[in-house]
Each structure stands twice: as C-alpha cells, then as structure tokens.
Specification:
There is one protein chain. With 314 residues, the protein is mainly alpha-helical. It has a domain of 160 residues. The protein has ten helices and six strands. Helix 1 runs antiparallel to helix 4, helix 2 packs antiparallel against helix 3 and helix 4 packs antiparallel against helix 5. Its EC number is 2.3.1.225. One of its GO terms (cellular component) is membrane. It is found in: Membrane. GO terms for molecular function: protein-cysteine S-palmitoyltransferase activity. This is Palmitoyltransferase.
Length: 314
C-alpha cells in the first residue's frame, strides 16, 4: 500500500511539473525596455556609429542593466527592437527575447527561462525519483528473471525492459539534474556557462552569485513550503537581478574601510542603478556604494567606453 501511494504521488508531481514546464509561456521584457517610436526612427535613420550609440545610451540610461556585449556596447536586439535586460537572450527557435534564458529544450518544446526554470528543475527531480522508484521496486523481479525464478510468460520480458529503461533514464537524469543543481548554487544559466556575462569593465563569471542560500532563494523563493510544489515562487521580475556590485583587486593594498583606494574610484564595475523592490533585500549584507561614487559613475556612463557599438547576440 505504501509503495502504491508513493508511486501515485511521484507520478502526479512528475506530470504536474512537466505540464507547467511545457505550458508556462516564457516571459518577455517589459515595455520599458522597448525603444520608443522616435528612438526606432532615429536608430534606423542614423548610420552605425556614435549617433546610434547615443540613441541606445539615452534609451538605457534609466534601465537597471549592468551587462554589455563583448565590445562593451549596450545589448540591443534588432529583431525585437529592445534593449536587452540582464541575462535576457533572443531565442532563434521562438524568435523572441526570453528573460533569464537558460536554453531551448526540444523535449518540452519550450524555452526554459525565468518563468519556468523552477518547474523544469522539479520536472527533472521528480522524473529522477520516479525512475529510481520503478527501478528499485522492479529489481527483485529482475533478479528472479536471471535466476529463472519467474514463470515462463511474456511478462518476464516486460519486467526486463522496464528495469533497463528506468535504470538508463535514472543515469541520464541524475547527471542533468546534478548539473542544473550546480547552476542554481552558482546562480548561473547554461548560456552563461558557455559565455560568461560581461559587465562594464570586464567579464565576471560569478557576477550574479550572491552565495548559496541567496542563489537558491532566487529560483525557489523565500517560502519553503512552496519549494517542492510546481507553483511559481521565484524572486524578482526577471528584468533585473542583484549582483556582487564590486570586485576588489587582490593585488592592491586594502584600506581600513575594506576597499582599496583605487577600487573606490576605478573598480566599481556596475552603474549605480536601483534594483527592483522585490530583490533589494537579497543584498542586505552586500557592500554598498557611497553617494559620491554613485554620482561620479553616473556621470561617466556612456563616456568610459567611447568604442561602444551596437551588436547582435543570441
């Protein structure tokens, strides 16, 4: 009876997670990231150069974006006509920009991103548990098959096939689930593993990592009672994400305040732009900027990289 109840629980959670992964539409950037009609006309009218860069800088000056392209330009999608939010990428299959895109999964015929990443993780977890449960309960009959302890009927071949299928899926799912658990612990996406996010002055593969606990809560939320259920509980709006904000140079001497004198003026890698209210509490113990530094950085936005150019990226 216990095995039967456990079987039905795993099966229902598996189907529920799979359903939510497939039919949850990926979230697109909000309207504030789309260029206005006048900005679109200006961008199309001006040749590629400083004039286009100025249009993009003007459109992005009040947006909570920290990342740039490989050449230091503002990330812009010329197909969707929008300034890309951090961790947003254009999916060539869906032909639209997906917030915090992880990958396009052919097995669910959907993009895995901010809106359904938790469902995808639970789908992998419950699929793995389901396969392990089937393999464990079928093991005794599989052993009897090889010791000739089963009646000589066609059902014995079904038992062998079921065990092999469950065991093989368990191996493949365990590796995939383990990989995504590692991504969650580091607050990375699959795309960010292959191409680390590029911030204003340098590439930082751990730029969005806030520590294991906060990284976990970004995907599963603050309410632990919802962690194991396929209901949306991720933090934030998918358009802006808290970051480490400051990287210190370990080769330079540190001041008593904890930041070296050079980093106070030069090594602030991110513009001083406010985070969404739903995410700011994740950075309660992160180092904060001084008011003077924030004003100085704001004045240098768009000037520290004179070679800014508009680029397309997936």
């Amino acid at each position: 009876v216990v095995c039967l109840v456990a079987y039905h629980i795993f099966f229902m959670l598996f189907v529920w997670s799979y359903w939510k992964t497939i039919f949850t539409l990926p979230m697109n950037p909000s309207k504030e990231f789309h260029l206005s009609y006048s900005d679109k006309e200006s961008l199309e009218r001006e040749p590629r150069g400083e004039s286009q860069q100025e249009v993009l800088r003007r459109a992005a000056k009040d947006l909570p974006i920290y990342t740039r392209t490989m050449s230091g330009a503002i990330r812009y999608c010329d197909r969707c006509h929008l300034v890309k939010p951090d961790r947003c990428h254009h999916c060539s299959v869906c032909d639209k920009c997906i917030l915090k895109m992880d990958h396009h999964c052919p097995w669910v015929n959907n993009c895995v991103g901010f809106s359904n990443y938790k469902f995808f993780l639970l789908f992998l977890a419950y699929s793995l548990l389901y396969c392990l449960f089937i393999a464990a309960t079928d093991l005794q009959y599989f052993i009897k098959f090889w010791t000739n302890g089963l009646p000589d009927t066609q059902a014995k071949f079904h038992i062998m096939f079921l065990f092999f299928a469950a065991a093989m899926f368990s191996v493949s799912l365990s590796s995939l689930f383990g990989y995504h658990c590692w991504l969650v612990s580091k607050n990375k996406s699959t795309l960010e593993v292959f191409r680390a996010p590029i911030f204003r002055h340098r590439t930082d593969k751990n730029g969005f990592s806030l520590g294991f606990s906060k990284n976990l809560r970004q995907v599963f939320g603050d309410e632990k009672k919802y962690w194991l259920l396929p209901v949306f509980s991720s933090l934030g709006d998918g358009c802006s994400f808290p970051t480490c904000l400051v990287n210190q140079d370990p080769e330079q001497a540190s001041t008593p305040g904890g930041l070296n004198s050079s980093s106070k003026n030069e090594n602030h890698l991110f513009p001083a732009k406010p985070l969404r209210d739903s995410q700011s509490h994740l950075l309660t113990d992160a180092p904060s900027w001084s008011e003077s530094t924030a004003k100085a950085e704001k004045g240098k936005v768009g000037m520290s990289n004179p070679a800014l150019t508009m680029e397309n990226e997936t």
